[in-house]
Design brief:
- Pfam families: HTH_34 (PF13601).
- This is MarR family winged helix-turn-helix transcriptional regulator.
- The chain has a single domain, classed as Arc Repressor Mutant, subunit A (Orthogonal Bundle), CATH 1.10.10.
- Strand 2 and strand 3 form a beta hairpin.
- By secondary structure, the chain is α+β, with helices and mostly antiparallel strands.
- About 20% of the residues are buried.
- It has four helices and three strands.
- The radius of gyration is 15 Å and the shape is elongated.
- The model has no long low-confidence stretch (mean pLDDT about 90).
- It has a three-stranded antiparallel sheet with strand order 1-3-2.
Length: about 100
């Protein structure tokens, strides 16, 4: 019998990264402050996890200015959406195997 834990995505095993992806999977773009408040994390914590997800191309980053203030928005990519779905499927397989 194959070990379902092998199908888990290491990038999404961290709680904060999984939370970020869970929020972004709704097809909405979120700015940094909204994500920070929604998840209840610090600036540095969010920034480091965003950077890791961006490096894997799981999210895209769009920078702009709103009323002369920098505004950074994040959105899930197709690669990220696929990885998220596979990770959830693997979690489901783990749970089913335990029954």
């Amino acid at each position: 019998m194959k070990n379902p834990f092998e199908n888990l995505d290491k990038m999404l095993e961290h709680r904060t990264r999984l939370q970020i992806m869970s929020v972004l999977v709704t097809d909405s773009a979120f700015d940094f402050n909204t994500l920070k408040e929604t998840l209840g994390v610090t600036d540095g914590n969010l920034a480091s996890h965003i950077k890791a997800l961006e490096k894997e191309k799981y999210i895209s980053v769009t920078k702009s200015f709103v009323d002369r203030k920098p505004n950074t928005k994040y959105k899930i990519t197709e690669r990220g959406r696929t990885a998220f779905r596979k990770h959830l499927d693997a979690l489901e397989a783990v749970v089913k195997q335990q029954k």
